[in-house]
Amino acid sequence: MPELPEVESLTRFLAEHVVGRSVARVYPLAVHALKTYDPPPGALEGLVFGSVTRHGKFLDLQAGDLHLVIHLARAGWVRWNDALPAEPPRPGKGPLALRVRLTEPDGAGFDVTEAGTKKHLAVYVVRDPQDVPGIARLGPDPLSAAFTPAVFAGLLKDDRRQIKGLLRDQSTIAGIGNAYSDEILHTAKMSPFKLAANLSEDEVARIYAAIGSTLADAIERSSGLALRDLKSEKKSGLRVHGRKGEPCPVCGDTIREVSFSDSALQYCPTCQTGGKPLADRRMSRLLK
Fold first, then answer.
1. Model confidence pLDDT, tens digit, residues 122-132
2. How far is CA 109 from CA 23, 50, 160, in A?
């Protein structure tokens, strides 16, 4: 799933390639992905892209007084092409969900795709990004200057949720998902099941620092890469997430996993849980 670092890299890439260029055609090809109908996608045609920004995991391409907002969900992606096929794409069962063709140079543009059978990609055309429900309820962005240690501590105070779940909650902090929450907690040497409200000042400070360093490092590794290389760069840069059974790069212990109904987390027992494995079931506690 694309998370904040990948969406930030997409934002920067698209800003370099589309700002100042006008929209020739918009082809919405996956009806399930289109979440708004007024204005229609065709209203973007003839408008000039003025900016590309990010709201959490949402891409926001502003053109005139409209915004093309994209949430890539688990399996969505953006693919740039200097020369799109001349013939209009046909709706079908393939991964192509949206195509945006630019006027200059003629034929350049990008495709929005979604792999797999579970379709959760979302595309909006709105006059105000806050009209997108997912954006309206976002918490603070961890890359913003407003995300201070005091603000972070305030988010955790009296919250009885496990820290792993809190980090993934977009209404609490925008942009962090399953992979980078694992990485952050590994860097902070913190159990994913520790309750936020029970964290000491030192533990809160460690997690705050890990959020900044983990996200900044991921963005730095992706800087300048082509869009097609961002996914592989993310995977290669992860230290614990997706690495069940491999040695921890810090201590050498075997990375373990806790599976849930639709996801899994990975962690290092030595680095994060005092050497004790977590029970592999939902809402588990440390084994006695």
1. 999 999 999 99
2. 9, 15, 46
